[in-house]
Structures are given as C-alpha cells and as structure tokens.
Amino acid sequence: MLVEQDLIPYSVSPLPSGPWLIFAPHPDDETFGMGGSLLLAREHGIPVVIVVLTDGALGGEGNRSDLILRREKEARKVARDLRVSALEFWRLPDRGLRADPQLIEKIGMAVHRYAPRTILFPSPMEYHPDHRVAAYAVWEAAKRWKGNLWSYEITAAGRVNRLIDISPVIDEKRRLMEVYSSQMAENDYAGKILSLNRMRTYTLPAEVRYVEAFFDFSAYLGTAFPGVVKKMLAPFWSREAYEG
C-alpha cells in the first residue's frame, strides 16, 4: 500500500538549474506562486526571464487601460527588485487566453530565444482558466524540449513532488506581493498565499516554516498533455494506493 512519502515530499529540494524561463498568466502570478524561489534565485545568481501572458485587465474595477498600465508598472517594480534579466508583456486578453497554434508557437520561440535550463509554468490543477490554459500551451510548446519542466502552485494545493524552503525570505516575499497593490485592494492575497506556503510544510521538519510547491514534469517530456496529467494523479487511484 502507498504511504504518505509516496505522494508528497518529506524533505525539501534544491532550486532547479538556471537560467529560468517563467510563464505567468497575469502580472503577480510569478510572485504569488514562486516569489520566494525567485528571491533565492537572485541570491544564487540564477538568470531569470519572466513572460506575462495576459494584460490583467479584469483584475479590478475601473478603467481597464489604466489597470493594465498599473499592473505592468507593479510587475516592473518587482522585476527590478528581483534583478530579472528580462520581462515581457504579451498582453493577451485576460480570461480569454487560448492555447491556439499561434500562442504555442510564440512560447516555443521564447524558449528558443532564451535557451533556459528550466521552464516554469502554472500547475494544470489551478482553478483560473488562464492558469490552466497556460499550463497546456507551455506543455505543447516544450514537451520535446530537453531540460527541466516544473509547474508552480499559485492558488490550488494539487499534487506536487518538489518543495522549496523559502523560510529565510518569507518576509521579503510578503513585501514583494504587496507591491501588487492593485490586487491587494481586491483581496488579502498575500495573507492567503502565505497560509498556503505554511500549510505545505506539513510533512517537513519544524525548522522549515514556509515552502513553495512545484511538480517536476521532466520525466514526462514527450507525453501528450492529457496523459501527463493522468500520470501526475495516477498514484491516488491506483490499486496500490488502497490495497496492502
């Protein structure tokens, strides 16, 4: 019978090798989901490129054009603090992201242009449709690429197999999240994200106070997306999961 260690890590993992190429559906997802890991990457001198896919126009009330500019300004401030190598805004429609051939091709071109060692994208288990579409589009663009392919958790606690200890930088992560004041005005995202980061330490030693959670898909490269999601979740419904 499978035990907890077969389903969730009981130790923390090192950062994946750089350079990193991160795909964020909206301005803020990269920081909410993996801001602590980005701070650690800065400390380790890992080059980072962030691509923001949508314009974020629906992330608040008021004039949409003004909100787009405000959210991009916030993202630029965070990027400067993180010393990222490049930040791109593709300005696709918020809540209208489509994994069409054009987007998949554009993602593939970004992978070719930046030549990362690790690509990071939202978990396919996320709730927001743009997050799930981003996961599919990145997978289709990179499934035959040779390197590390990790998903990062933003709002949903799904299946993960890597936990990064962000305890030493947790206060700075909160500060970075609060740079996104347009979003903090909508909800206490920072408090809720930190609660998720805290909850994820459930299987770890007491000195690990906060972690960010990822799924390393590198072993599944070449697999079609529906198949890889099934493999991701298969341990939970396999006969081995409930038979001794």
Automatic annotation (TrEMBL):
It comes from the Bacteria. Signal peptide: none annotated. It holds the Pfam family PIG-L. GO terms for molecular function: hydrolase activity, acting on carbon-nitrogen (but not peptide) bonds, in linear amides. This is N-acetylglucosamine malate deacetylase 1. It comes from Methylomarinovum tepidoasis.
